[in-house]
Amino acid sequence: MNPPPSAGPVHPADLTDALLAAAPLLSALPQPARVRCDDPGTGDLLRRTCVSLGLPPVTPVTDATDLGPFERVLDGLLGLADRPPQRDPAGPSSVDLARRRDFTAWAHRVDVSTSDGAALPTWYAGDRSRPAVLIASACGMPARLAERWVRRLARDHFVVVPQTRGLFAPDPAGRVDVITQADDLVTVLDHLRLDRAHLIGLCGGAVLAVVAAARRPDRVESLSLWHGDFDLGGESPKTDHQRNLQALMEMAARDETRAAAVHAVLAHTMLGVAPPGLAHLVVYPYVRPDLLHRYCRLNGAIMATDLRPYLTGLSHRTLVVTSRDDRTAHPDGSRAVAARIPDAVLHVTEHGDHLSLFRAGDALMDLAVRFVAGDPPRPQTPTPVGVGDDHEPPGGGVT
Q: Is the pLDDT of residue 135 over 90?
């Protein structure tokens, strides 16, 4: 996972970027985390940078054979092996610039408290006088995972990203049911004194967006649901990934002993499936057995929720996005949701999944921005429907 030796010396600003990006992972790893670092000068730079950024310490080691699986994720992100430090020709200014351009520097954090005592660390960016957009991201994921979405949308909107209760603060999760998690979105709007917002739901967050819109339709300007992890009974087949993950979550959600057993399996398999460039973020809720237990209770509730009662009566302007080849969340779940919402726009791309969703390419972001602004996507040619095939269903509008 490390860059090859030809990657050259370690620049202090690049190390600053990487360590700030790894901050959620560092906060969850047992301390101190270790990474391979053969050059004493680079090791010293690593220690000093962690101190200056106020991050947990990272210990440089020359033998990486006994690194844990999540330490290997950190090791791959930093890529310090066999690389000497590079003097910063601009002095400390380039490091300061790296700090100023980081997500945690230009976005602002506020900790929102819920009625049952849970804490919702929430990030926001943009002009408060502009229309509000609330991004319900994937359950258990750091807000930074949606950074590209926030950067693009914050040009013309006030963008808010709450993090999942019970996973990013020392406070207990309290209740974990889907209604409570959906109400958390409204609690965040209340705290920030936002009357209404465009709701963007990503992956499991799409379920919460639907439930929030059903419970508080007056607070929702529009809905856009991206690669949603939907359950609509027999109307929505599940992928192998969905079925396997749901079974593991049901087991780990029972108690921390079972969660520890599941963690031992997942900890090593995550190395093979975690995507380069995003691994340090998407592994966050899997790092420790106690985190995994809480995550499985929360996300397991999302995955097991039959969404059909919440879709009845929805009338918001709605965009539903999936792809023909998503092997993570079955595309037919999105098709079924679009069919149940009057005049919903279904947009099916040729290729895409949860990873491309968070990499947020230009075409994807253009689609999101146009929809929030009231400009519908360009129409596609409708084709006959068949459950489980690659065609769009009748019902909701098809683009």
A: yes
